[in-house]
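Dissemination and training. As part of the outreach component of the grant, students in the summer workshop were shown how a complex can be specified as a set of sequence lines and then modelled as a single object. The example used during the hands-on session is reproduced here so that future cohorts can follow it. Participants entered these lines:
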Amino acid sequence: MKLFITAALLSCALSLSAQQALFNSSNIVSPQINDDASVTFRYFNPSAESVKVVGDFLAADPAVVIPTDIHMSKNDNGLWEGSTATPLAPELYSYAFYVDGVRTIDPANVYTARDIATLSSIFLIDDGCDGLYGVHDVPHGSLSKVWYHSDILDVDRRLSVYTPAGYESSGRNYPVLYLLHGMGGDENAWSELGRACQILDNLIARGLARPMIVVMPNGNVDMPAAPGESHLGLSVPNTNLPHTMDGTYEKVFPEIVNFVEANYRTRRDKASRAIAGLSMGGFHALHISKDYPDMMGYVGLFSSAIFPLKEENIPLYADMEDKIARQFENPPLLYWIAIGKDDFLYDINTHYRSLLDAKGYDYVYTESAEGHIWRNWRRYLASFAQLLFK
Amino acid sequence: MKLFITAALLSCALSLSAQQALFNSSNIVSPQINDDASVTFRYFNPSAESVKVVGDFLAADPAVVIPTDIHMSKNDNGLWEGSTATPLAPELYSYAFYVDGVRTIDPANVYTARDIATLSSIFLIDDGCDGLYGVHDVPHGSLSKVWYHSDILDVDRRLSVYTPAGYESSGRNYPVLYLLHGMGGDENAWSELGRACQILDNLIARGLARPMIVVMPNGNVDMPAAPGESHLGLSVPNTNLPHTMDGTYEKVFPEIVNFVEANYRTRRDKASRAIAGLSMGGFHALHISKDYPDMMGYVGLFSSAIFPLKEENIPLYADMEDKIARQFENPPLLYWIAIGKDDFLYDINTHYRSLLDAKGYDYVYTESAEGHIWRNWRRYLASFAQLLFK
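and obtained this result:
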């Protein structure tokens, strides 16, 4: 067996041809997170006439607003470069380049996130929310993409399930948080953009949250699975989905609970079930917790889209005040409402709270800076998860 | 509760601002798979001077070679368009645009795949390999990302586990295929680029493969998890990993088997274990099956990097012929070798087969068209999986 090709040669050959010649041949580092937590972006394009960075880089401290558009300048070799004017707070950020006005992701950055129907480049300044967003040397839970059958819709549907570290071997039963996405989102949103697994791993490891299962379903009744994961193949994501806010989802939701409780080691009482959602998911959490008043012991409404539409004769909204009254006869252990000061849904949340106040229903209210934005929802999850099942 | 904002208004507001204003504002459809299975690409960029598409569009029929570079032409509105000259065979394809020589993914296509350190746009012509790559109306297995502890390396490591439809409720024990990636790959490669879940779902549903668990570990001993999933955060993927082909992985591999057999309902005999890998993973499969001759009943070497380096005094290669002789004393039920005619590893595979032939060891050989390319590995998996555990 005298074969004189070495691993070094393999490595060389691979870099030319293999795994489909997809090694990144450029040496451009972008984004570069500098020692002071400012960020430098680079982009090679000799022929472009203007390149700017557009991202969600507003500082966590509202007094320090960093311009969202960073104009890059080109050196003699055609390499564009631009940096944030100040350090960025630890967070997960999204951005894109605009090259002569045309949006493109950063070709030097392999990390992207799809939010609804748009792909953006992302980076993480370790470590947001007091170290909750990074992958640290702590026990890690598992994330599973599983399918359940909806008898009502007569279709298989996909959901994401986080099981905490030790689940496989502990033999214990766990409480469950049902965590819902917003309009246009899907069952991947909370685990990707929401850093839900990292937040839970880190909170549980520090003893700040109880070990729990987190179920992240798809809240679009006409979408069995996230774009790219269903029979629709890799088609353009459909952002105009019917039946997302007409009561259909609330009707089929108990099938998800039944599936989870039949297939996972769960605690099956109201005090061991929580539901929370962002935007449209907050709408769903509100109505599900109201329609099944004995199901959810904890309710979280994150930047919630609160639209009672009883004037349109949708059964979901019929007798809404009576149903909420019934819900609060045997009230949830926690009814938690959070919204950012700049959220376009701020007023409607204020109005909804005034209705709860008028009836004397007990809830906890948290108001944050900024608006309808993922970093608020990550923080809300981190706060809410610490309050559950205690 | 008189709130007159409607869901339509929410939808409108969301399209402007929410989920971070990341609805795709353009109406450009790209790629467009035409009725005749030709593909049209579109890209809006008024200022660009040349745009071409570079992809892996070689036809499945080697007589019909489609140019890999498609030069696009610009209309008066700045919209570039170009199409493949002929229909494409059903497959999963990767491509990028070169805009005045600068590589970029297709901004209108949210589907991408990272292969090692490069991101490409992808599309699927339904349905490759006789309908094995699409998500069809068949029972679906689950895909889990789980962590196990390596005592030898003293670190938590991540792996992907496919469990077949019905696993949760059947109570049965299942055979296990260990499926290994190539150099620079990771535990996500087979489930993303390899369509492993779809291939297994479809084969099992048609009765062409036995229900099995598929374990897809990370084969880089210095990389606990895929880029973006470890403590390294969203840093530039490291493509120069030490200890990938020096015998270390073969030493720690039994820890993976032990973890899987302790945490999943598995059949735990040689006839119920298979190992296969592509390129570097084929190297690993060869050495693991040789070093633990009682472990693996089925061995698949896909475009395998076969580099016996005994001249470098690496213990892995010591007594290699003797070890293979021992392996074939109680031979695997199947020793399956596949490679493409154009693969840069073709000669070394031919040489290895001649060594097996000289000893009279039994194996099955499959030769395909093309080279070191993912569509070969998907097809090899589809073929190999049908031969297992029968």
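Chain A touches chain B through 109 residues (CB under 8 Å). Students were then asked to discuss how this feature might be tested experimentally.
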